[in-house]
Design goal:
This is Sulfoxide reductase heme-binding subunit YedZ. The chain has about 210 residues and is an all-alpha fold. The protein has helices at about 10-30, 35-55, 60-65, 75-95, 100-105, 110-125, 130-135, 140-165, 175-205.
Amino acid sequence: MSVDTNNKLSRHLAVGIGSVVFAALLWVAGYHEQRIVGAVPWFLLILVLVIGPTVRLWPKIRRRFSGNFPVNWRSELGIWFAIWSVVHLLFVFQARDWDVIGYLADMSPWAFGSFVAVIIAVALAATSNNRAYDYMGGKAWKWHQTVGTYAIFWLLAVHIYDRAYLRPGFPSDDPIHWLYLLTLVLVVVLQIAAFARVVSHYRETGEYPSGLN
């Protein structure tokens, strides 16, 4: 499975417009702005994370579509995740009357984790391009992006646990809380299944699947 660092305007427009439409649907469903700008980046992150294991489990997907689909969408999805994450952080600062220093000094461990996740997301977005890929080299760039993405995932998973389950209690009567839980489980299950697929391939052939590095 190859990487793709070519950012295309058409894909950026598609992801940007799609995320705005999703935000509008949440607004129509009755969610307020701060919750919307918190939900949109999470679901963009989920899309980034399910692409890899999905292609690993069902390689025919890439043979059916041209242009390295769906791998070639991860860069744009990741960049828009970073954009929406920064917007969410700005909404949090606004809710605290822009007392950024006070917020940082008094934040909970869960909030601190999400704050670190935003910093990592911005760093990944800034290096999600051909220039950074050529500078770092393929293996280092892929390690940097992969480790960073999963660090973000688990930091936000803990944050969601606090905001969606620990404080309001479980089970929740909010549908989006259940979507958070389902998508979190989906990512974990797909990753475990893809890992098992790679190990099985190695045990059968003595080699790892092509594109795995």
